[in-house]
Amino acid sequence: MTVEGSSIDSTRPSIARVYDYLLGGKDNYAVDRKVGDVFFRDLPGSVAIAFANRAALTRAVAQIVTTTGIRQFIDLGSGLPTADNVHQVAQRHAPESRIVYVDNDPQVLVHGCALLEQNDRTRVVRADVRDPEGVRTHPDTLELIDFDRPVAVVLSAILHHVNDEEDPAGIVRHWRDHVPSGSHFFVSHFRSGDNPETAEAERVLQQTFGRGRWRTDEEIASLLDGLEILDPGIVPAPLWRPDTAPNPWNAGGAERELSVWERLIVAGLARKT
User: Fold this and answer.
1) What letter would DSSP give residue 173?
2) Which helix (H) or strand (E) holds 235?
3) Is 78 a residue whose pLDDT tops 90?
4) Cα dist from 9 to 29, 71, 105, 127, 232, whole Å
5) 81: confidence class by pLDDT, cuts 50, 70, 90
6) At residue 38, does pLDDT exceed 60?
7) Between the CA atoms of 244, 249, 252 and 253, what dihedral angle is there, to the nearest 10 degrees?
């Protein structure tokens, strides 16, 4: 699998690479670590957001595969490959599962294509999540995804990078309108906490990337308008169907008091009826 037109800029921070650094990955540059170190140094404990989000994503994929007949996933804004990627979780339970990863970061494509070279049920598409029709009609998407059958649309920690004027609800609505009944939508999102930590973290992202929008629980739920939000609703990520299954993102489950940071990332699963 080759990547055309990819050019990695190591002089500007990348959202995907900063996230990779926060999760302990190695696919990042000094400029990314500089941003990540702001969270490590000035916002101690904030890295729990990344781990809580990743754990909820792996649980959601496992839940979808083991409790529904869905065997195809579109992971929008997938980021750099790490432990327990969507295809690894899904194919562990159902080897026939097919996954399309979507990101516009060229490094994601380079690393993703290398990782997935031997997996003929997985594709990596370079596209912008703000262009859902372009993603949906991309040849690699159409090669793998049958839109006459239910699809799992994964929007993990991506919609908070879409500003209001870019119509994040419209992105979800487009996918809702183009997948059949029975399709599932997983969403995780930064949550407004009305506290200094929220304000500072939002400021760092806005200053670094020129984007980043924390939203209230009501605003996040409204992004899923027209879909049935499944139990337990939109809740802090560690409280979304917690389990004790060992995985590298297990932050201790929900049997303890959550930190302020763990409450700043919420997760939810919805279904098109």
Assistant:
1) H
2) strand 235-236
3) no
4) 10, 35, 10, 17, 41
5) low
6) yes
7) -60
Provide the β-strand partners of residue 155: 187
Q: State residue 245 phi and psi, 5-degree precision.
A: -65, 130
CB neighbours of residue 6 within 10 Å:
14
- Cβ atoms of residues 53 and 188 within 8 Å: yes
Find the helix or strand (DSSP H, E) in which 208 lies: helix 196-209
* Contact assessment for residue 153 and residue 184, using Cβ atoms and an 8 Å cutoff: yes
In whole angstroms, give the CA distance from residue 34 to residue 30: 6
Strands of 145-199 (E only): list them.
Answer: 152-156, 184-190
The pLDDT assigned to 5 comes to: 41
Which among 124, 118, 98, 105 has a CA at the least distance from the CA of 14? 105
CA angle 208, 209, 215 (to 5 degrees): 105
- DSSP β-ladder status, 235-236 and 98-103: unpaired
Residue 249 CB: number of other CB atoms within 10 A?
18
Please count the other Cβ atoms lying within 10 Å of the Cβ belonging to residue 174: 16
pLDDT (tens digit per residue) in 176-227: 999 999 999 999 998 887 778 778 777 877 777 777 788 999 999 999 999 9
User: Which burial class, exposed, middle or buried, applies to 69 when counting CB atoms under 10 A from its CB (0-12, 13-18, 19+)?
Assistant: exposed
The pLDDT-based confidence of 119 (bands split at 50, 70, 90) is confident
